[in-house]
Amino acid sequence: MLAFRVSCTDQLDIISMAETTMMPEEIELEMAKIQRLREVLVRRESELRFMMDDIQLCKDIMDLKQELQNLVAIPEKEKTKLQKQREDELIQKIHKLVQKRDFLVDDAEVERLREQEEDKEMADFLRIKLKPLDKVTKSPASSRAEKKAEPPPSKPTVAKTGLALIKDCCGATQCNIM
Q1: Beta strand spans in the chain (E)
Q2: DSSP letter (8 states) at residue 90
Q3: Each residue of 111-130: b (16+ CB within 10 Å) or e?
Q4: What are phi and psi of 21, to 5 degrees?
Q5: Which three-class secondary structure state does DSSP give residue 60?
Q6: What is the C-alpha separation between 3 and 94, in angstroms, rounded?
Q7: From CA 154, how far away is CA 151, in angstroms rounded?
Q8: Higher-pLDDT residue of 141, 91
Q9: How confident is the model at residue 134 (pLDDT cuts 50, 70, 90)?
Q10: Whole-angstrom Cα distance, residue 174 to residue 167?
């Protein structure tokens, strides 16, 4: 069970929870970092979903292409009416899947640009939040012995975005399988 204690020390409110002593500004900053981490994880989940969709589309396209190649290998004179119809159907299905994949890649690009804007806004927000915290933590009234040194806040990053992986896998708008 956590115990809460509030005390006033040299005009600064310090909130104690278990063995950790944090000022309200530090709590706000920590909450902002956690929120940012949550956003990064949600983004990563979204990127993985894009990648799974892309992989499935590429697999479906490849399967249809293989079937189409088998039909194209048959001399035109020997093809039945049903085989010719199936050829046309396969071409239409492949075309629809390629369009769907192009839309997926475009959607991933829009998402990437939106995330860039969000990153910029979050960086500005954290910069504004860190300046007042620096003043408070550097004031002579605060005791450095009570606080543990923390590394500067860092923005969690993902090594490669889903879009970059899609581009690596299949090119920007055309699957290399095609």
Answers
A1: 4-9, 12-17, 20-22
A2: H
A3: bbeebeeebeeeeeebeebb
A4: -115, 120
A5: helix
A6: 63
A7: 8
A8: 91
A9: low
A10: 9
For residue 91, the one-letter residue type is: I
DSSP one-letter code for 77: G
Q: Measured between alpha carbons, how far is residue 68 from residues 21, 91, 143 in Å? A: 68, 8, 75
Q: Is the CB of residue 64 less than 8 Å from the CB of residue 93?
A: yes
Q: CB of 127 within 8 A of CB of 3?
A: no
Q: 96 forms bridges with which residues in the sheet?
A: none
For the segment 68-89, what is each residue's pLDDT rounded down to a tens digit? 999 999 999 999 999 999 999 9
More confident residue, 31 or 134: 31
DSSP label at 152?
Answer: P
Tokens of 29: 């900053």
Which token pair is 7? 């005390």
Backbone angles phi, psi at 97, to 5 degrees: -65, -40
d(CA 66, CA 47): 28
What are the tens digits of pLDDT across the range 7-47? 444 555 555 555 567 788 888 888 888 988 998 899 899 99
Q: How many residues does the chain have?
A: 178
